[in-house]
């Protein structure tokens, strides 16, 4: 059995207001070509399919067009996708009856039976090989919000609740599997020890307190396809517990590594190999600075001139970081003038003041812009300013829960 492991597509994302649709379109046509070339049995999408709970229509068209094209190209391909923390679980599941006809399984929520037990049946997906024989079971673990795993069923502890959902599902899968059938888990979660990117993953609940232990996935699970962290990595150096990372850099802090999907081969229950397939970058993200303005202007002057015959959609996105001694009212104008006729698309200017203390992110960043702060950080700062003390942990937790409710607003039909 052969699987493609992908995650964190973030369809519909924009980068400081710039649309990424062209890059997503390039990725999806590249992925279709790799599916044709390698003919895996299964394609996994481990959450954050969309960037927001209310994705633009064009992003939804991208997903459904892709699924139909993949099915037409390879009618025997099974696709399994789960909701991530950026997705709306109910939105992901909405077209499930249609998608089942395309051998595509979309899981966005967990449900509970009348007796209070986890409905494990709907989260267990048989994975057939090319001959139609079930050779493995997929355990689908969509991202779970606190309200879904705490309360009557499992008590109030979020992590313990999630742990119990995992245990019950693995138990049910073990009861169901026949000898020789592999178990493959797909989950959108922050595993302890993972390396986090600077500003695009959005904390699941609070900081790292939410990280799950890899021991949740015992050795009866042959492979764990994870989503959430955008940098490809193993968990605890284990070959079988992996993040494949996002297909495109979602922020300027994610440009320093090669984006990829993982090509996973199993023989029976044994994991044979996990090979990365590198994704070509359709559009470069370029960072200049942090440097004083004069040096920045000199570097901008050296950028390539616009080639009138070239595709403007392929022009790099540019972030400029300027260090200043004092505010420079015509900063944007100077930079924009220097960029006239240059083959780049400016997305962001960050002004950083030399000598000011930094509380956030890189050591070289001084001035913080609003969009560099998470809502939780902003709340903490406002609390500090109003009350002169740090907000306590319970207050931060309550804020995080309210924040999630706001982020989900408008999701209900
Ligand atoms: Mn993500």
TrEMBL record:
GO terms for biological process: DNA recombination; DNA replication. It holds the Pfam family SbcD_C. Coiled coil: none annotated. Keywords: DNA recombination, DNA replication, Endonuclease, Exonuclease, Hydrolase, Nuclease. Transmembrane segments: none annotated. GO terms for molecular function: 3'-5' exonuclease activity; endonuclease activity. Residues 1-232 form the Calcineurin-like phosphoesterase domain. Gene3D superfamilies: 3.30.160.720, 3.60.21.10. Residues 283-386 form the Nuclease SbcCD subunit D C-terminal domain. SbcCD cleaves DNA hairpin structures. These structures can inhibit DNA replication and are intermediates in certain DNA recombination reactions. The complex acts as a 3'->5' double strand exonuclease that can open hairpins. It also has a 5' single-strand endonuclease activity. Heterodimer of SbcC and SbcD. Belongs to the SbcD family. This is Nuclease SbcCD subunit D. It comes from Pseudomonas fragi. The lineage of its organism: Bacteria, Pseudomonadati, Pseudomonadota, Gammaproteobacteria, Pseudomonadales.
């Amino acid at each position: 059995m052969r699987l493609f492991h992908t995650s964190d597509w973030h369809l519909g994302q924009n980068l400081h207001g710039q649309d990424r649709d062209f890059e997503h379109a390039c990725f999806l046509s590249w992925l279709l070509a790799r599916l044709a070339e390698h003919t895996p049995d299964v394609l996994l999408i481990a959450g954050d399919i969309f960037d927001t709970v209310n994705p633009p229509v064009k992003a939804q068209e991208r997903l459904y067009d892709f699924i139909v094209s993949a099915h037409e190209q390879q009618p025997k391909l099974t696709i399994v996708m789960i909701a991530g923390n950026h997705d709306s679980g109910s939105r992901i599941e909405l077209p499930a009856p249609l998608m089942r006809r395309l051998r595509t399984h979309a899981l966005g929520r967990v449900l509970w039976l009348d007796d209070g037990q986890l409905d494990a049946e709907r989260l267990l997906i048989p994975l057939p090989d090319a001959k139609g024989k079930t050779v493995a079971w997929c355990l689908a673990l969509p991202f779970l919000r606190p309200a879904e795993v705490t309360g009557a069923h499992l008590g109030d502890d979020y992590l313990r609740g999630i742990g119990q959902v995992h245990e019950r599902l693995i138990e049910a899968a073990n009861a169901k599997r026949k000898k020789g059938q592999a178990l493959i888990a797909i989950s959108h979660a922050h595993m302890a020890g993972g390396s986090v990117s600077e500003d695009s993953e959005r904390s699941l609940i609070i900081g790292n307190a939410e990280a799950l232990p890899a021991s949740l996935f015992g050795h009866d699970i042959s492979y764990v396809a994870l989503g959430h962290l955008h940098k490809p990595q193993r968990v605890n150096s284990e070959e079988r517990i992996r993040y494949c990372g996002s297909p495109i850099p979602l922020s300027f802090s994610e440009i320093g590594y090669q984006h990829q999907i993982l090509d996973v081969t199993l023989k029976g229950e044994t994991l044979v190999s996990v090979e990365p397939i590198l994704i070509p970058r359709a559009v470069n993200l370029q960072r200049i600075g942090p440097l004083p303005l004069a040096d920045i202007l000199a570097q901008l002057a050296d950028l390539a001139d616009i080639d009138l015959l070239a595709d403007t959609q392929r022009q790099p996105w540019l972030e400029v970081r300027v260090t200043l001694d004092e505010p420079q009212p015509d900063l944007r104008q100077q930079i924009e003038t220097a960029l006239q006729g240059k083959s780049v698309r400016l997305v962001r200017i960050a002004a950083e003041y030399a000598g000011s203390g930094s509380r956030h992110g890189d050591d070289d960043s001084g001035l913080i812009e609003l969009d560099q702060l998470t809502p939780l950080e902003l709340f903490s700062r406002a609390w500090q300013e109003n009350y002169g003390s740090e907000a306590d942990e319970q207050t931060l937790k309550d804020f995080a829960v309210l924040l999630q409710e706001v982020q989900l607003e408008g999701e209900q039909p």
